[in-house]
Amino acid sequence: MWKQNHSNNRFPGKPGLPGQGHRCAVAAAAALLLAGGLADGSMTAVCTAQELPVSVSETETEQVMPQEALPVGETWPSMPHMSYEEYPKVDGSLACVPLMEALIMEVTGCSEAQAEESLVDFSNTNPSYEQLTYGAVELILSYEASADTKSRLNDLADLELMPVGKDALVFLVNAGNPVENLTQEQICDIYRGNITQWSEVGGEAAPIKAFQRRENSGSQTLMRLLLMGDEEIPEKQMVRIEGMEGLIDALVEFDNSANAIGYSVYYYASSMYHQDNLKFLAVDGVSPDRDTIRTGSYPLTNPFYVGTGKQSGENAIRLRDWLLSEEGQRFVEAQGYVSAG
Questions:
Q1: Which residues lie closer than 8 Å to 75 by C-beta, 6 or more apart?
Q2: What parts of the chain have a pLDDT lower than 70?
Q3: DSSP-assigned states of every residue in 37-91
Q4: What's the confidence (pLDDT) of residue 249?
Q5: 291 membership: H or E segment, kind and range
Q6: What is the CATH number of domain 78-166+306-339?
Q7: Which of 50, 95, 177, 316 shows a CA-CA span of 20 to 30 A to 8?
Q8: What ranges do the domains of the chain cover?
């Protein structure tokens, strides 16, 4: 199953893939930021929040896979079973890969290598919705679709999508950055170019270097859904990074890394590609963790979905229904995710 130093070379973040091989290119691109500061810009505010005091402990910022979420000897008596050959083709988001692999291994009894092989044509968040709509796959486990994807696919009218878990958009900075908390409005203003210095948000007198993902990526979709909406984000003040692991690598490797900020989803950044020298920022005074995501007290939470389409077969429907059952939700938690509740 997925490990940060996994030998499988299909997915970003595993050795041998562009996710690791492009580190030098990412660092070089990030270094270009040293030549210039941030550009001021002004746009209509779409985010409002009040700044709250916060205290974030070292253990909170270094949280990886919570062991209490992994019950010993858990069994799944109502789980559907089928052969590896009968198992439906599955697609979805990168952050759902560990869940996909665990599911096929439990349902079919297949090996880890076979589980990885079943995802060889994995396409990621927004392409997975197209794959399901057009019948190329029968089941998806995926984060929110972008507005563009929804528009092109008739608002996903041909799909049945139900929340199967919860995750959150999280903001990451170097562990040496003294800033512990940002409000939603401050985050928006950083990415608008209205806040350009860390001293404006309680940090040191240093320029803020803001990294972002490409449009239609899963985390960029959440950035727009939960914070920025349709606002234009000035290109000249930041660098777009390919891949969630690429953004985290850029934060780690940027020459003046204490000045950088970027974002990901909590599960990926805490459990799949954890970096000791980065920390999660609290937002509106609330730190992201499994409990605050579960309760919704962390403000930037959002569900991820299990989905089927018009061409999905019986086995895909059985898997979907089981994942949504009480037992299936325990299985989701057992893989380290937050269930839909």
A1: none
A2: 1-74, 235-257
A3: -PPP-----------------HHHHT--S-GGGS-TT---TT-----TTTSPPEE
A4: 57
A5: helix 290-295
A6: 3.40.190.10
A7: 316
A8: 23-65+167-295, 78-166+306-339
